[in-house]
Structure formats: C-alpha cells, structure tokens
Amino acid sequence: METGKGQASVPKKSPFTPKTIIHQRFGTKACYKVEEVQEVVQNGCPGLVIPQKGPCLYRCSLQLPEFSVVSEAFKRKKDAEQSAAEKAIQKLGIQPKEDNLTVEQAWNELAGRLSYLFSIEFLSAIHPLSGHFRAALAREGHLNGFVPVAAIAMFDAKINSLCKYISSEMESNHLLVMSLIIEAAKRLADALFFSEEKLSLKRLTPHPPEIIQSLLKNEPNFPESISIEAVRIPSSTEKTVESVILNASSGIYYLDVIAKELGVKDASKILFSRNIGKASSDTRLYFCAPESITIVPSSELYMKQASSFKGYVNTIATYLSGQEICGDAILASVGYTWKSTDLYYEDLSLHAYYRILANKIPSGIYKLSREAILAAELPTAFTTRSNWRGSFPRDILCTFCRQHRLSEPVFSSDSIEPLPDLPGRRRLRDTLSGGDETNEGGLAATAVAQEGCSLVYRCTVKIYSKCQDLILLCSPKESYKKQIDAVQNVALKVLLWLDGFLDKVDMSVEEMTSSAKGFDILIYPQQFVKEFSLCQFLPKYRWSSATLAGNFLCPSYSNVQNNPLEDEVSSGMTPSSGSLVCVTYKIYLATERECTKEHLEGSEEFEFEIGSGAVSPALEAVVTQMSVDESACFTMELPSKEIVLAVARDSANILSLLFSGTCLVKCEVTLLRVTVPLEDRMEQALFSPPLSKQRVEYALQHIRESCAASLVDFGCGSGSLLESLLAYQTSLEKIVGVDISQRALARAAKILHSKLNGNIEAEQPTNRVKSAILYEGSILTCDSRLCGYDIATCLEVIEHMEEYDACLFGDTVLSSFCPQILIVSTPNYEYNVILQKSTPQYQEEDPCEKSQQESCKFRNHDHKFEWTRQQFCQWASELALRHNYDVEFSGVGGEPNKEPGFASQIAVFRRKDTSPVNADFTEHCDVIWEWSSNNSTS
Q1: Following DSSP, what letter does each residue of 317-334 receive, concatenated?
Q2: CB 3.0–4.6 Å: which of 378, 598, 667, 816 could bond 366 by disulfide?
C-alpha cells in the first residue's frame, strides 16, 4: 500500500558523477551530443504489421580528443549523458573513488580541497570561486587576501559534496557548511588563517608579488564605475519592493558593494542563496548573516539561536530561495561563472523580479511560455497537441516541481480495455463480432476488428519531496486513446488544483483535502503543508487576467471597424467553440482621458482555441462576437500592481501612472483568421447545406409533425440548435438547454437573449416561445425539472462521452426524464472514409496521429468513440425495448440504401405509454439563464 512517507534515509552517493570525472580530465574538450531515438514497441494486435511508436528516448555521443563513445537509449537526456561519460571512463581505465567515504576520509579530502583552493595554481583557473580569490587580493587595507567563507561554501560544488558525508543536514543548512569549512581550515592552521570577526579565510604566506601583478595585467579593463540594476526586497511587509543601483568597478570586490547597500561593513557578513530562476543564470539573493550567531559545528545550537530572529524573517525572500532569510535582501544577477575569468553581470529590474514570482505559479509558468501574462490563461482542458499553444502540462508540472525544490513528478501509465462490462449486458463490440469476421458491411467488420485490439490509457502521477516523502497523488478515472494524452491530462489536473491552492494558501486542511478530491487528487497534508508552508507568507498575488467591466454574459465593445486586409476564405466567419483563432492584440495602460498611454503587452499573431479557457475571459468574450478582419477596442479591469509590473518593461513610467489613481487598461484586438474544427471542415467540404443545418431541419420536421409545445436539448453547448429553431415558425412555447460547460452556456445565453428580445419587439414574431431556460449540469443525473417534455434532442453529443456513459445516458433519459419523443444523432463511423478523402489540403494534423493504425480517424479529437450503423442500431433497439419505446432509424447526409449510409445516423424514440410522468427526485442542475416573454423588457 502506498504511504505518504518515503525511505527513512537516502543512501550516500559518490561526490563525483561520471560527467564530473570527465570534466576534471578534459574540461571543454569533452563534447556531448544528444539526439532523439524512437523506440518501436509491439502493438499487441496479432496480424497487424503496422509498427507502433513507443516513448521518445535519448542517446548521447561523447566526443573526446582521442575517441568517442555512444550511450544506450534513456528516457532522460541527463541519464544518456552520464551513461556516455561512464562508458568513456571504463575505456580510459579510470578508477573512480570509493562511493562511500568514511567521515574521517571526508574530513581529510575537505582539508585537501581547501589547500588546493588557496594555492597559486587555482588563481588562474576558470572557476566561479577563483574570481573571488583574485578579487580578494585586490581588496585594500585589512581586508586584503580575505575570502569570505560564505563564498567558498556556495561556489565550490566539491566542498558541498564532501560535506554531505560529514553531515546529512548539510543540504538544508547553509551555515552548517560554513562551520564544516572552518573546522577543516583549523586542520590547516600552518597554512590558513581564520578570522572569526570577518568570517573569512586567508593564506598565512602571501602570494608572491609577481603572481599578483600578472593577475592584475590579465584583468579586464572595466570602466571606472559600473552601474548594475538590482532589486531590494525588504523584510517588512509594509515597505515596497524597489529597484537599487549597485556601483562597482574593477578595483572593488562586488560583494563589498552589496554589503554597503545592505548596511554592513564588508562582504564577510554577506550570505548567498541558491540560484533563483533558471539554473543557467547567476541570479541570487544576498542577505546579512545575523550578528549574534556564531558559526559552530553544531547545527542544533544554530537552530536554537536562529529562533530568536523569527520576527525579522524576510518571507518573500525566504519563499524565493527555499531557505530562511532574515532582514532585507538584494536580488541581483552578478558574479563569476565557468565561462571566463571576467565578472558577469546584467541588470535585474522590477519587471524581471515579478516575472520570477510568476514563474513559481502554474498559470504564471504557462503565461510566460506564451509571453502573454495579461492575455493568456492556463487552459482548463487539454484538447489536442495541434491546438495547444505554449508549454505542455507535463513540462509545466516538471518546471513547477523544480521551482519548489521537489523531486521530478513520477508518471505511470496503464493500458486497459476501452469499455468495462455493462451490468446485464454484453459489450457492443463483443456482441457484434460474435466470432465472425465477415459480418455484414466490410467497413463495420474492419472497425470492430480494430476496436477489439485497441487499448486506452490511464495515467497516475505522484509528487515527492526532495526527501522522498509522497506529498500528492493524482489518479483520474478518465481514459484516453493515446498514452501522451493521458499523461498531459493528469498533469493539467494537478496544475489546475495547485494554481487554485496557491491563490488561497490559507485554506484549512479540510478545505484543501475536499478541493483536491474534486480533481481526483489525494494529498498527504502533513508532508504537503511542510513543503508549501512558506507560501502562506506571500502577498496575495493573483495572476489571473482581468475580466470585462460589466456583465460577462453580454459584454459590449466599441469602435468596431473593418480591417483593410481581406481574406476571402474566412471573411465573415465568427468563431465557435473548438475553433482555433488567430488575433493581433495590444494592451495599454492609459489615463481615463488617454492623455498618457503606455504599452504593456501585445502580439502580431496570437493563437488560441475557443472554449478551452486558454485566454482571458474578457478577450474571448469579445473575439467570439467578431468576424474575420474586424477590430474592436474595449476596457478591462485594472489588475494588481504586481501583474502590471511583470508585464511592463519601463517600471518608472508605469508606477507613476499607477500612483496617479486615474488609469485603466485598454485592449485593441483584430481577428485575423479562424480555423474551424476538423469535423466542421470535413462536413463543409462535402455537404450543402452543412450537415449541422441538415440535422436542425430534421429535428424541426419532427417538431412540426408532433405539435410539441416544449423541448429540451441535452448537451446544448453554445445553443446552436436552440438558436436555429427560433428562426422558424413552430408550436414550441418552452425551450430548455442543458450542458456541463458554463462558458458554452454563457455564449448561448447571449445569443438567445438577443434573438428572443428581437422577436418580441418585431411586429410579426417568427415563433411562439414564451420561456427559455439554460441549466448547467450533467445529463447523466436525474433532475425533476427536465421531466415530461414533449420532445427532447441530443444531437452529436453521446460520442463525446465514454461508451459506458452513453449507455447510462440512454437509460436515464428514457426511464426518468421520459420525453414523448427523443431524437439522438451521432456520427456514422463507416462514412469517415468518404469525409476524410474530401478533407481540405489546409487541414492541420496532429503529428502524433499520422500513423496508420486505423483505417479512418474519428471526426473530432474529443470523440471518445464513433459507432457503425450496426452498433448504433443495437444500442438504440435494446434501449427502446427496455423502456417501452418504439424506435425508427434515419439520418442526414448520404443515402439510406447506398453504402456507407448516412453521414449522421439518427434514432427517433417514441414513448408508447402516454400517462403523466411522476418526478419525485431532487434538482441538481443550476439555472444559468432564464427568459420569459412576460418580463422580457426588463
């Protein structure tokens, strides 16, 4: 059984990895080249000779001056590199040092390493620490030659590795590493001098003057003064984060400059954090060592002394670094690197600081990957790889774990049967195949045979702390046709929950557990709270985009005008759910009268999928009202100062505008193009009128014949069917739509509100509708308000469910809702071969779907299944028999007596029993929008 606690202790590792050993010997002459390899796996289907792609693997070739080696294939690039280095070590005959040093051996090696660092040889080496030694020799007065112990502890990886053998607490206690270095230096009392006052080490024997002179000659000629922009993070939450300028020059130790900015004498009292942000950068937090703390080898004593400083803990700096920081801190990007002996530095602005904060939050990571902090949102659903823009969920989750110093997330996928056994009923494909591979209809036989050998995937992800404590487990019930989709979807679930948690970190354990359960997530509260305890001290940075000022359902926008650019193919097309749109947008911070305007963010071509939650609700609400080549300008609510500064590069002008108190945010957007979903493109290429319109006309014919007064549309989406019905004269007086998507219902409400009010105001209304309601809820659960309607429709909906849920829906509707007539339509899988031959050339394909494992693809990426005529007929016939209904079959698109039948197959159920329906169950749907002709003018 899985538990929240990992191993009691982590086995000690060798201080030197194979790559480290190769680097020690060859330096930059060792060249690693990693390339992707594709593994071919067994497809698990006898007789199917088409190869199936396996997971992406990596192989590394290592080129050394005398020879080269190639690694085996690994899932991770770094494993391939280490493998190549290990092979090279074996070929060279190098014997690595013992993996498990004794404590005494580690002390001896630590002293030996210190002796080497203070040698003349090390001064000219290209090493992050050698620059500190050279700078120490240029310090004036009593500081000359003194190297801060903190610098040695931070910038020499070998010393840190050796300290791990001496104390297991080293990794979480920076001062303990310093104390171990000091203890080792005492063993070199005849060569090194330790100053307790300066917390620094110095050679007892000065370096020869000629060595120092030669070093000074090789130093770069810096200007007299270098101005480096940095950020001061105050410990007091009442003070604001601000920019500071560090003035350094070639003759001054940069740590002394930072010390002066923090109000202490010199670099000896300065401590460092780990790298902040990207590991390749040298962005760190610099802060003062507490005055009253003496460095001793007892970490227990240190912790007791440090407890008296809790009142001065810098919560934001502590959160960014993952270690306790007291007092003010300086965030700067400056120091020495492996690349050269020169001092590296670059400006770090408030803009960069707030982007670093954003990169600690899942939605912030996604926004930064799109370079759209104000416009983009972390999508609520992973649709297709071809429609997804920005970093993929799995990559975002890995980045999040690294940012919070957690172990890499562990994904495990299982292949399962596509459809579980249904109670009292055999599975459709089992019934249809019946051991006879030559059943009627060649395409049907092919589909059944392929379905029988296909698998679906479920994925679980576990997140561990660095100490291997399990803190989070997500195990969704949903299954997917492709393994990569299962992985991306489980990662997205975790990200969405973490995003909500970080927005409200002060929630109770009960709230936390309950909200996680809604995402199929199990958390281990004790370990989870421990890892994210620092987050509760942060200000409430809310990184979600602003919404439109006013009513979201019926947003208004102004200054709509035609764009001079023309697009004959897409002109006049309005985006709908599932469409991939491309816009040009610009967002400004302006005063109310637009006397001053500062550009914040924009893009010449910004793509997103309508309905996936990938952009600001305000931007999507406006774009869905536009046609191609149309432009709009609208006002958005002013986001928080932190969000604006994360976007704006000119912090000074932006701050002056924000403090004026009269500014607002304006957005200008132009819709460039719309790419409709694949299913729509296929249908438009072959049918006139479009297949969707033919389905509406089919439903309309039955409504007229039945003289129905009430209609409920199950899975109404954006209300396309309900909107179309309002254009015809019918007997309908009440129409109802039910859907699970609140966004889709919001669009439906806007459209229906406009249409119905327009009809009331007209002299001769086109319909008799007196009331309309939209419900948010699942169509798989009973609700008494949906019972007893004259006619019910469910057009192109069931294929978006799992097959089991489609069967459950049929039973629920006919046994509980009991409409007089039910019309159900779904794609005919057998017709796909014709549709896909007619697909336009500009169709975008998912590269992961280019394999020919299936004779035909499904029409839409979101379809969980598509039935043949025989499968659909069996499902509907059994359903009607169980619930005392008659059923007849028809369709639209194609001909009934010509292969392969209709493009959309339709079943019409008619209730035999006309007695009233007794509805005594509860109401679970929420009313999203309601309209009545009696109060329509309000």
Answers
A1: HHHHHSS--BS-EEEEEE
A2: 378
